[in-house]
Amino acid sequence: ITGITLEDTIVALDDTQYEDYYSEWTINFSDGSTVTDFPVWIKLVKSLLPGDPIIPNMLVVLQSVLSSTAAGSPFVKYKANLVAVKAIVDNAHEVFVKNRNLGEDISFFTAMRLQEIAMEAIVEISPVADPVEVFAQIIFAIETFFSPRPHFQSLQDLLAEADFKVEDVFLGPLLDSGFLSEKNLNALSRGNTIYVSDIVHLILDVKDTAMVRDIFLSTYFNNFQAITKERNCLKIKKGFKPGLSIPRTNLVLTRKGIPVVIDQTGVDIRLAVLRANAAAGAGPGPKDLDIPFGKLPASSHYRSVQYELPVLYGTGSAGISLSSSPERIAQLKQLQGYLFLFDQLLANTLSQLANVGDLFAVHQEKSKTYYQQTLYDVPGAQDLIAYLAGPDPWTDFISAASNDYTKLLDEAGEPGDTFFRRRNTILDYLLARTAENRQDYAAILSTIPGKFSKEIILHDKENFLEKYPSLSMARAQAYNYTLNTGGTPDVWDTENIGGYGKMVCAKLGFISNKERTLYHLITDNFDFFNAIFPPGTRQYRFKDNGGTEMMVSQNTFPNDAAATEVVKVFLQIGRYRENYELIQLPSGNFSFKLVFGLVDMVYSGLAVLANRTAAESAIRTIITIIAERYSMEGIHVIEHILLRPHRLGATPATSDKLFATLKADDTLLTDPYSNIVTVALPSGKEHDFSALIPVVDPLVTGYRLRDPEFLLFIQQTVLREAPAHLMVNIFFLDVDTDPAEATFDDRPSLQNFERKLKTWREAIANTAATDAAKIDAQRKLVTVIEKIYGV
C-alpha cells in the first residue's frame, strides 16, 4: 500500500436512522512497477450522531488500521482471500485446458457477487424435538437451497439406478470425487426468484417441526440493506448469487408458544458436521466398469468318431483280434484312414472355435486364420502318419512343436496369400464396428516399395485398432497450451497436440504424432565419405541424433548426387520394421541389414548387439529418426481463438496484433477468430522465396506428400475428422532455400512458420514469460499466418 486517501466524510444512508455509517476511501497499491487505485467503502458499526466529535479521531484510527500489514489486518485478510480465489480460478482453468475442445477457450472469469438474505421466523417444534438438531437442520436446508452443492455419487450408486446409462455416466473427464450425473448437475440451477413459501416448505420438511409463524426475508448488497421484511418473494439480481446471512438471521424455536433457549455452540458444531458431509465426495471406489469375462468351454478337446462305431468294426479302443486275417486288418486300416479325414475336419472345426479369441484379436499370438489340431491319440494314428516321421522315433515326432504333419496341416489351411486376405477381412470387420474404414489408406500403402507391403498393411490396421480407444475418446480435443514440466514448457517436441491432431496423424499413417520441427537438413543424420575401393567413389552412412554411426552403405556411388538418390529410397523403405532383416553372427551377437535395389545397408554401430532385444531397439531408433526428421509427416494445428486479442484498452504498441482481413475460398472472414482452425503441413517441395520467379523443386524428404493421391487423402482426412462447426483451412508450405531466410520474419515458408509457432507456443506456456514476450511472439505468428493466407 503506497497511500490512503479519505474521499468523503462519514455519511449515513438515511438521515432518519443513525445506525450504519460509511466512509469512502481510495487505496493506492503497487506491484513494484504499476500503481493502481482501489476504491473502498468502510462501514462503521457504531451508533453515532452527525457531528459527533469522536468521528475525526475514528478516521485517524481507521487510516492506521487500513495501512497496517500486521497479521489479521483487513488488507492482509483481503489479500489472503484473493490468493485463495486465484488458486481456485487457476485450478479451474487448468482442468479446462486439459479437457477443452478444439476451437474453444475461456474468455475470462467473472466472480459472482453475494446477495445476502436474512430470515426472521418463529418455528414451533414438537415436544420431543432436539432444538439444537432442528435449528442446525433448518439453517443447513436454507443454506443448501440458496447455494446448492453438487451431489457426487459412487459408481455403485449409479449402477443401482433404474435409468443408468453408460454413455451418460462417463461423459467428460473422470472426476476426483466420484460421478456427477446430469440429473444432479441440473439440480444445481435455480431461478432468480426466492419465494417465502418455498422457505416455509423447507422448514416444515425438517423433522420435528410443526408450524411456521411470522416469517419474512430481508436482503443486503455489500452490507447495504436493500429490502426489509419481505413476506412474498425476493428477486436475485443478475450477477449475484443468494447466500444466507446467519448473523442477521433471527430464528426462534418455540414449544407450545414458549421460546426455547438454543445452545449456539452446539449448533455451530452440528452445522460444521452437516457441511463437511455435504462437501465430501463419493469416497474411494471403482472409477470404471469391470469388463465381463466369459468362460469358454474346452471346445478344442476332440473325441474321435471311431469310438462311436459298434465294437464289431474294431475302430474303438478295443481294436480287433490279433489273429485276424491280413485282409481284415487291411479293411480296418482302410476304414480308419477314411474316418481320419473326417476326424481332422471336425477337430479343426473345434479348434477354430477354441481360438476365436485369437482370430478376432487386434494383435494375434498366432499368425493364422485357420486353426488345426493334431490327432496323435486317434486310434490307428501311428499307422497312418508315422511315415512322416521318417527314421525318427514316434515319441520324438509327436513331441516336436513342428514336424511334417503340422506343416502339412498349415499348408493345407492357408496356401498362398490366403492368410493375408482373410486377416485383412477380419481387421476390416473390426474397423467397421467402430465406423472406421482404412481401405483407402491400405490402397496407398500397397504401392510402397519394399518386400513386405502386405504385412505393413496388416500391421498398420492392427496398430490403429490398438490406439483407437484413446484416439476416439479425445478425437475433438485440443492441445493443452499451458502444459509445462518442472517449469519448462511442454508444447514442442511433445505429443501434446490434442486428440484431433493425433487422430489425423493416425489415419494418415504418420509414424510420429509429435508437435515438432518437421524439416531437417539431410546432412544432420547422413554423412557422405570417400570409399576405399574403388578409388574415387563415395559411400554414405546414417548417424543417430547424437552423431553416432548406425548403418553404412555397402555399395558405392560415382558422386554424392547419385548417393543421395539412393538415400531417398532408404528413407522410404527404412521407416518400416518389416524391411529390416535380423542376422545372428557366429559369435552369438546380432546385427541387421536392409537391402532393396541399390539400397544395401548394414548395422555398423559401435554398440555390441548382444541379443535380439538390443537389435530391435537399434532398429526402432533408426525408424524413429526417419519418421520424426525425414518423413516430414506431421501437422500443425493453429486455433485462431487462441490468437484473439487479450488486452482491452491497451495502446497499439502494447496490444496484441489483430488479424488483417482474411479470406478463405474467396469468402471474407468477418470474424477471423471464432470457429476457425488453420492446419499447416509441409508440401515436400522447396524454392527460393527471394527469387522473383521461383523454381519449385522436390525435396529429398517428404516423398509421400508429393503424391497426388496421398495429397487428396490428407485433405479429405483433415476435413473429415474436424468437428462440423469449425472452418478448417489447409495449407501446404514450401521450404525456403534462401541462405538468409532466417532474417525475414514475414515469409510464409515452412521454416519461418515453425520457428514462430514454436516461440509462441513456448511463450504462452511459460509462467515466467513477460507480457511483452508473449505479445511479441503472437504478433510475429499472426504476421506469418496473414502471409500464408495471402494478405
Protein described:
This protein has 22 helices and 26 strands. With 791 residues, it is an alpha+beta fold. Strands 5, 7, 8, 10, 11 and 12 form a six-stranded mixed β-sheet that branches. α3 crosses α8 and α21 runs antiparallel to α22.
Write a brief caption for the model.
The protein is of the alpha+beta class and 791 residues long. It has 22 helices and 26 strands.
Annotation keywords:
single chain, 791 residues, six-stranded mixed beta sheet, six-stranded antiparallel beta sheet, 36% helix, 19% strand
Uncertain runs: none
The amount of beta strand, in percent, is 15-25%
Number of helices: 22
Question: What is the makeup of the main sheet?
Answer: 6 strands, mixed
Query: How many β-strands, per DSSP?
Result: 26
- Write down the overall mean pLDDT: 90
Helix-residue proportion: 25-40%
**Radius of gyration in whole Å, from Cα?**
39 Å
Shape: flat
Briefly note the structural class of the backbone: alpha+beta
- Termini separation comes to 48 Å
Seen as an oligomer or otherwise, the chain set is: single chain
Structural topology:
Elements: E1 3-6, E2 11-12, E3 20-30, E4 35-45, H1 54-67, H2 74-99, E5 113-125, H3 131-146, H4 155-159, H5 166-169, H6 182-186, E6 193-195, H7 196-204, E7 209-221, E8 224-230, E9 233-235, E10 240-244, E11 250-255, E12 258-259, H8 264-279, H9 326-354, H10 356-359, H11 381-385, H12 394-399, H13 404-413, H14 418-432, H15 439-445, H16 453-473, E13 484-485, E14 488-489, H17 498-507, E15 526-530, E16 538-543, E17 549-553, H18 560-573, E18 581-584, E19 590-596, E20 599-603, H19 612-630, E21 636-639, E22 663-664, E23 667-668, E24 676-687, E25 697-698, H20 708-721, E26 727-736, H21 750-765, H22 771-788
Parallel strand pairs: 5-10, 5-11, 24-26
Antiparallel strand pairs: 1-3, 2-3, 3-4, 5-7, 6-9, 7-8, 11-12, 13-14, 15-16, 16-17, 17-20, 18-19, 19-20, 21-24, 22-23, 24-25
Helix pairs in contact: 3-8, 14-16, 16-17, 21-22
